[in-house]
Amino acid sequence: MVKLRLKRCGRKQRAAAVYRIVAIDGRSRREGKDLCKMGFYDPINSQTYLNIPAILYFLEKGAQPTGTLFDIFKRAGVFYKFRKKFNY
After folding, report:
1. CATH code given to domain 2-86
2. Which of residues 14 and 22 earns the better pLDDT score?
3. Do the beta carbons of residue 40 and residue 27 sit within 8 Å?
4. From the centroid of its chain, how far is CA 80?
5. Burial of 53 (0-12, 13-18, 19+ CB in 10 A)
């Protein structure tokens, strides 16, 4: 199963690193090979960049977001666009 999750990147000693939003096989580890990079999340500066078409594509195919990404997507209105695209 494909999961949408956060992948840590940036400096190792930094208290809160920058995270990439990726689609990855659910059985692989956090730093494993990703299928697609779909944006980034910086919790310190509260910056988020989302590639909405790529996210909608993977959600359409049945990918499951993690809890943190679910909250990020909800704040960005991704699920509203997902429902609108499929007339839910």
Report:
1. 3.30.1320.10
2. 22
3. no
4. 16
5. exposed
- The verdict on pTM exceeding 0.90 is no
Mean pLDDT for the stretch of residues 31-60: 89
Q: How far apart are CA 27 and CA 54, in angstroms?
A: 21
Amino acid at 30: R
d(CA 1, CA 77): 24
The full length of the chain comes to 88
Q: H helices within the chain, ranges in order?
A: 52-60, 67-76, 78-86
CA distance 60 to 64: 10
Q: Has residue 15 got a pLDDT over 70?
A: no
- Which of 20, 32, 25 has the alpha carbon at shortest distance from 63? 25
pLDDT of residue 48: 92
